[in-house]
Amino acid sequence: MTDPMIYDASDATTPVTELSKPARRVLGVLIEKAFTTPEYYPMTLKAVTTGCNQKNNRRPLTEYGEDDVADVLEKLREMGLAAVVHTESGRTERYRHYMRKRFTLSEPQLAILTELLLRGRQQLGELRSRASRMVPIETQDQLRAELEGLVKLNLLQASGPLDRRGVEVDHNLYPAKEGMKITQSAARDESDEPMTAVPPSPKPTPGHAPSAPAASSSSTAIEPRLAAMEATLGRLQRENAELREGMSAVRDELQKLSARFDELRQALGG
Fold first, then answer.
1. DSSP character for 131?
2. Longest Cα pair distance anywhere in the chain, in angstroms?
3. Neighbours of 157 (CB within 10 A)
4. Global confidence as pTM
5. What is the pLDDT of residues 68-79, one digit of tens each?
6. Strand order of the sheet with strand 43-44?
7. Mind listing the pLDDT tens digit for each residue in 200-227?
8. Could you list the residue range(s) of the whole structural domain that residue 151 is in?
9. Per the structure, how many domains does the chain have?
10. Which runs of consecutive H residues, i.e. helices, occur in the chain?
11. Is 53 found in the same domain as 114?
């Protein structure tokens, strides 16, 4: 049996600096499925369309038709980001991505960029959890190192320094007209708070007790409650992310079974 033949629409060398919303979704699906379901990759047009419109690991949700996806795939081929594969039987065209040919990326960087293409802006904790389903990213330090590399390639934008708590990141392939540039307004650490001079307390008048600093005591009482609420919120967000990832794994398995069923049906002439 001869190898499948791959056809490129062009040998595009123009730098890729922006992608339309449909192009980001289709490209993200091709890369994601290459990682998570390699046995069904390259992908048929139908499979790419299903991947674009699936309900998990996508934001926003879409309802693309096969004709829409076919047009996007052709544009990605013209940009040198995708190719069509003709198998020996010639029964069904399949598609693959060419990201590794257009960009010099590590495997974790490719997984991170894919996750951002599919879901958009995220905090580092949830990003590592989601990207790790494609390529292991063991620690937050490793994640930051990979993100720094994407920043140098101008493929990533962030709301502040990557070592700052609460920072959010996103890919940097939005067209300017979408207005998705992240403003540098990360959550501030306590060390960033400006130092304010505290005026001296007035001396008590003889015969009068000094008044209690009501605002200060009130603030002191609220701070522990806020800290507890933040801790609870963080725990709930982590649990929610874990539940979503579990559901994602189940749905991926169902998609594998569905794809296998379709292939068997085609093989049997159904």
1. H
2. 104
3. 21
4. 0.68
5. 999 999 999 999
6. 5-7, 82-86, 93-97, 43-44
7. 455 555 555 555 555 545 555 566 566 5
8. 108-187
9. 3
10. 21-36, 45-53, 66-78, 99-102, 107-119, 124-131, 140-152, 214-267
11. no
